[in-house]
Amino acid sequence: MIVEEEGFVDNISDVSIQSKILGIIYRHLNDFLFIMKYENDEFRYIFTNEKSLEVLGLSETPRGKTFYDVLPQDKADSLKIIYEEAILHKQSIEFMDDHTLFNGELIHAESIITPIVNSVGECEYIICITRDITERVKKENQLLENKLRFQSLFVHNLDAVLSVDSQGNIFNVNKVGVDLLGYPLEEIENRNILRFIDFVDSQEFLNLFAMALIGKSLELKKIRLKAFAEKEIFAQLKLIPTVLHGEIVGLYIVLRDITEQIHQEEAIRQLAYCDALTGLGNRVALMDNLKMLTKSSNSEEKHFALLYCDLDRFKLMNDSFGHTTGDILLKEVANRLISIMDYNYSVYRQGGDEFIILIEESDKEIISNFAGKIIDLFNSPFKIEYQDFYFSVSIGISIYPTDSTNPYSLIKNADYALYNVKDNEKGSFEFYKNDMNKNVSYTLEIESGMRKAINNNEFFICYQPQFDVNTKKTKSLEALIRWNNPSFGLVPPLDFIPIAEETGYIINIGEWVIFEVCKQLAEWKEKSYNLIPVAINISTRHFKHISFINALKRALDIFEIDPGLIEIEITERAMMNFDESVIILDQLKTLGVNISIDDFGTGYSTLSYLKNLPLDTIKIDRSFIQEISKSEKDEMIIKLISDLARNLGMRVIAEGVEEESQIHFLKRISCDTAQGFLYSRPILAEEVASNFLNKTTT
After folding, report:
1. Strand partners, 430
2. Residue 119 maps to which CATH number?
3. Burial level of 114, CB count in 10 A (0-12/13-18/19+)?
4. CA 166 to CA 241: how far, in whole Å?
5. pLDDT tens across 496-536, in order?
6. Percent of the chain at pLDDT exceeding 70
7. Residue ranges in 157-198 assigned as alpha helix (H)
8. Which whole-number Å values give the CA distances from 461 to 200, 202, 513, 571, in the listed order?
């Protein structure tokens, strides 16, 4: 044999047996074995085991052949250099290279070449053992790749990542984590993670931390962090166990900054639960809190009261001075409502000028005292832009569970009580009683029926003549709306007009009246009647509405009515916002219609306004006329108004004339026009035509 291990021949004397044993070893050796003969500066194969043939891509041993006979030249060149190095230094050399097998598979190999030196110190043979380390290289490469991947994931993660030991001490943190916490890196590493967890959430965090250390990956949707300079940060937290050799040695803590998301959610919650104008709770917050309060009160046998508050005359002020002023007032009202001390209560804005208060109290005396304090809040004026506004507040009260255990019914019953206050004595409060809903039901039925009345042709117009006190001739008419309801019959104007004003439906009614009056004038004209002016009452709300002027102009154009035949009646209250009112009055005068002030002397304007307003007529309120024979002061007021109007070139009409003595007085003070039952009640258009209008003579 070529190669003999020390002592091997001594143990096995039969050379043939030795050869067989070594052959089996060589044949079945898992490594690749090459034995090379070195002579004349050439390396020739003298033995290869069967496995090594896979590397060479040969079917039989290449005995006697050189590297260049069986390998590509570049491979042969590199091997020759390494072999020559081993021969030169007479030392073993280890190296790694790649081999492509005959089937095209690439393997990674680790080789050891060992020179065999003879007795005279010359190298005659070189033995090369090559081991396939492809799997090992793959594993090492995989480990390296995983390490690089993890390092990239750690360094470039968009979330903060902290590595902590089993005690929670931080030993590594990425840049996002440093930026999130706001501290320098050296003030984060080697600190315990609890240093950066808000105390409020610390116990919950510790519980999760302990569970994660036994192998559970856990998540916390929201946790508060203590960042640099006490900055409030909210984060989503994940705890991932760090396993080394099968043992949990610590945790990865992943923190995702959700501060902006939390703030957005809070803003949305504010929009959902807070009234944008006043900052009070809105209807949604009211119902949520009311449901919770009824539930807790039911289980703990507690009582509470619900106060439904409504500002008196606020809508009038809002229509007169505009919504900007109204909004300022509502904010001031909210501030006053939350200013009462020594009571456990909460305030909500129900809508418009309505507020609801919940007070955890059942004693009616205490509730009455509290309601009285609310009413007292409105004793002092609201000052806006150097102008004082006075309001009162009406309050309806229901008590849980006496009046109801249902949140919606509690509100409804308090609303019934509020309706009762509004009908009887504004600026006070009342507790709910079982019979209150009857009046409210009537009011609601009136409102519902009124909204259908125009389409159902239930409204109609009556006209009340206005007479010359000297000649008793009809000088003009006043149009008055009437309602004949199928269920209620004739509904008094005092029943439905206030509701129409409150709901805003007065605008629809007002425009219907304008259209019908112009239509009636056109019919009378078609029938050759001599036309006389007709006065139309316009509510303050309609007067300020953007559609008013256009609706009037459209009706005049459609029926081709002389604008001088229309007189628009407004009340003094429409003058509360003087500058705005002047603009509207000027537009009316541009159209060519006449303008009168109704109920003069009962409103809020001053006599000095008269000289600056483009008015044609002043109507003296019936309350003054009825007191003529009883009050000298009323007589003086009427005379003063009449003289002033006449000097300003205005016509004066006295309303509510029912007695001859009143006519004598009006003649004496030179008030030339009167209106009242003494002459005629409001009558239908047919009676007006037959009794008070003359036909054109041809």
Report:
1. 396
2. 3.30.450.20
3. middle
4. 9
5. 998 888 788 999 999 999 999 999 999 999 999 999 999 99
6. 90
7. 175-181
8. 72, 76, 8, 20
